[in-house]
Design a protein that fits this description.
single chain, 10 helices, 245 residues, alpha+beta, Helix Hairpins, 46% helix
């Protein structure tokens, strides 16, 4: 499939939207050539048009940072992870966290999806790069389900947004109230918010609730109590990701 050769001629949102409609499987390469230093290459892996992995050396939160941001990994757990890594383990951090009993696999999965979206967010900040699409490619192992179209297309900059002034995705997303349909309205209600809530307010509300109810933070509770907390946390986590998208 042919795509524009330069990012300045289109946007990453337009490219991913076209590839989604065509339901293609392959790899999108973005190659930056800075005035100083070596060229940087970023890769977006697709399966039937859905994003399954992103490879970039752009600065994005590591798994431990994401968990701490959401109040799901305390300082003691962070120190323990550093000790394991210093000892030379080559295992993924997520596996270590689950093995040590700091978090559940569901929590790790949600954090990995957040990290994947963060990587894609970083690519949407690139202003100029050459673009190419390759069908024959070996995708990395995907520990999470592919991102849904709403997760990598909704609210993304498009070519039409360049008219008049340059598009600032981060500023627009953080300042604009979250719009709510019936499902989102219900999710916002579970978080104690209404349709005027901003993304920042949604994130803060989720962190506060998660800190209080996550079962990994109540190790001395009974099995029944921990099960109830796990169900409650799963509901709140689903509500959060419904709103944030």
């Amino acid at each position: 499939m042919q795509i524009p050769g330069k990012l300045s001629e289109t946007t990453l949102g337009d490219v991913l939207g076209a590839l989604l409609r065509a339901r293609v499987t392959g790899l999108v390469r973005l190659r930056e050539t800075p005035a100083i230093g070596a060229a940087r290459e970023h890769r977006v892996f697709l399966s039937r048009g859905e994003v399954i992995a992103v490879e970039t050396d752009s600065r994005v939160p590591v798994l431990g940072e994401i968990l701490m941001q959401h109040g799901l990994l305390d300082a003691r757990g962070q120190r323990r992870i550093r000790q394991r890594l210093t000892a030379g383990t080559g295992r993924p951090i997520g596996e270590i966290l689950v093995e040590e009993g700091y978090v559940s696999r569901d929590v790790i999965g949600a954090a990995l999806r957040k990290q994947l979206r963060s990587k894609l967010d970083a690519l949407f900040q690139i202003r100029e790069a050459t673009l190419s699409f390759h069908v024959a490619c070996l995708a990395p192992a995907c520990p999470v389900a592919p991102l849904q179209p709403r997760e990598f297309l909704r609210g993304r900059p498009r070519a039409r947004d360049r008219q008049g002034s340059r598009f600032d995705y981060r500023a627009r997303r953080s300042a604009t109230p979250v719009r709510a349909d019936n499902r989102r309205a219900q999710a916002l209600s579970l978080l104690g918010l209404d349709e005027t809530a901003t993304v920042q307010e949604v994130t803060k509300a989720f962190r506060v609730i998660a800190t209080k109810i996550h079962p990994d933070r109540h190790m001395h509770a009974s099995e029944a109590e921990r099960r109830a907390m796990a169900e409650r946390f799963a509901t709140i986590s689903a509500a959060y990701h419904t709103v944030i998208g």
